[in-house]
Specification:
The chain is 74% helix and 0% strand. By secondary structure, the chain is mainly alpha-helical.
Length: 196
């Protein structure tokens, strides 16, 4: 499950990188550029994250058996829309926060964690559990370190690319894929509560 989710996420990240490069090369009108950067690409990242979460579930939380994903997300009206909307709005609004403007590498991890947290809350609710979405201080430090390492690794892996647009597109793709370990760690931090 996890290996398949990682592979699908890697392929989705590569597909998004290719699409981002093509769109940036062939889109020049200011309104079209804004449409691509503010809507199409963020929506693509949302679906890549959802693909990873859906394939990794229920192993994502390290607990078996859990309610079927279909029952948890699609069994209650509006949940699928809520999940998509939360991730999309997080991707749009988080970069506007002053702290995240200075540390843009934190936007994708927080966006992915929002998706994992929302799914976890629904699973906990289905099992009649009162669960916390908030890790302790040491766990937050670990998650912050993983996010920082992912951002630094994406930057280092794209240093040799001379063209700025291509370098940014490659960095975005690598950074997107490097969110997977952080999401797995966060989900496994939450998972033990599902044993109750």
């Amino acid at each position: 499950m996890i290996a398949a989710a990682l592979l699908a996420f890697a392929l989705a990240a590569l597909g998004l990188a290719w699409a981002e490069d093509r769109l940036h090369r062939h889109t020049h009108a200011p309104l079209a550029v804004a449409w691509v950067d503010r809507f199409l690409l963020p929506l693509g990242r949302v679906f890549a994250l959802l693909l990873f979460i859906a394939i990794a579930y229920p192993a994502l939380f390290g607990r078996h058996p859990l309610p079927a994903l279909r029952a948890v997300v699609f069994g209650v009206d509006g949940r699928a829309d809520t999940l998509i909307n939360v991730l999309f709005l997080a991707g749009l609004l988080l970069p506007a926060l002053p702290l995240l403007r200075r540390a843009p590498g934190l936007t994708l991890p927080l966006q992915g964690m929002a998706g994992v947290a929302l799914l976890f809350s629904w699973v906990a609710q289905a099992r009649g559990l009162d669960a916390s979405l908030w890790p302790d201080s040491a766990q937050w430090l670990l998650l912050g370190a993983l996010a920082g390492l992912a951002s630094a690794a994406a930057g280092l892996l794209t240093l040799t690319i001379d063209e700025p647009v291509l370098r940014q597109d490659a960095r975005d793709a690598i950074l997107l894929w490097l969110q997977a370990p952080l999401l797995l760690v966060y989900a496994r931090m939450l998972g033990p509560q599902l044993s109750g």
